[in-house]
């Protein structure tokens, strides 16, 4: 049993998952959100994740009770952070929101408390800018769905100390995940590489090199990808892909990330992938 207290801020798609894995790993876990409805929804999602895990033989039924006991929810930030050794924020992707929230958390906690952000695209150095002790701020980029995906990108900002990186790495392992350490650069490791391959695959469709199915099969059978880059784009959402490509194109100033005309056209036509029923593939319910 771990006696450390871990606070998760924001109980949405990512926050509820991070809270679940922390509680399952034995941390006394506090989940904070401004909206009581978000906390209620998180509780339902966690119970459903655990129930599915039990059904599939991945979770011991006793774990469900232990997880429930380890997890508490609150709409009071001071209560949520009181006595915590780690705070992980998973609020919406807005720089000023994250900056102000981390400043508030820094004021509520002592210097030894690790402050982590689950940002998927913002600079950790900028998120840490307002915090008086930025050496304790680090990126911990979890993947969706958190209770299933194994990777955590640990992002070292300009001021993040190596001790903080080491603590984040140890914490990641305690949560049953695999850490990688990345410099604070746009797209970190995963998005930069994943998006570059995804965009090249779209350019190949544009040039008529092969069909989407055959390009995906090339990567699945030739490189053991579990899912091809075009199908993955459909699953993520082509509008989301376009936004990330535009962001990386501006930040890295590289033609590699210039959004292909075909991607822009598909988004304009509402072909967004699975969520709209059509992308590079047709999706039926
Ligand atoms: P979400 O919209 O599902 O959840 C955000 C939650 O934060 C909501 O419950 C909202 O009520 C709450 N919130 C808003 N302002 C708050 C505040 N001031 N204090 C406390 N709670 C507040 O968002 P999400 O998809 O979980 O994304 C959260 C973060 O995780 C973002 O930075 C995002 O970039 C990152 N991320 C998302 C994914 C993904 O697939 N969704 C993957 C990796 C990283």
**H-E order:** EHEHHEHEHEHEEHEHHHHH
Give the overall shape. Answer: globular
CATH homologous superfamily grouping of the largest domain: NAD(P)-binding Rossmann-like Domain
**Side-by-side strand order of the widest sheet:** 3-2-1-4-5-6-7-8
Helix content: 40-55%
Give the integer mean of the pLDDT values. 96
Bound molecules: nicotinamide-adenine-dinucleotide
Question: Beta-strand level of the residues, as a percent range?
Answer: 5-15%
Largest sheet: 8 strands, mixed
Question: What's the CATH architecture of the largest domain?
Answer: 3-Layer(aba) Sandwich
The domain tally reads 2
Number of helices: 12
CATH top level label of the largest domain: Alpha Beta
Walk me through this protein's architecture.
This protein folds into two domains: 5-183, NAD(P)-binding Rossmann-like Domain (Rossmann fold), CATH 3.40.50; 195-276, N-(1-d-carboxylethyl)-l-norvaline Dehydrogenase, domain 2. Helices cover 48% and strands 14% of the residues. It is built from twelve helices and eight strands. The protein has helices at residues 13-24, 36-55, 61-70, 77-81, 95-108, 124-127, 162-174, 190-206, 212-223, 229-236, 238-252, 261-268, and strands at 5-9, 28-32, 71-74, 86-89, 114-117, 137-142, 151-156, 178-183. Strands 3-2-1-4-5-6-7-8 form an eight-stranded mixed sheet. It is globular and about 60 Å long. The structure holds nicotinamide-adenine-dinucleotide (NAD). Nicotinamide-adenine-dinucleotide binds next to helix 1 and helix 5.
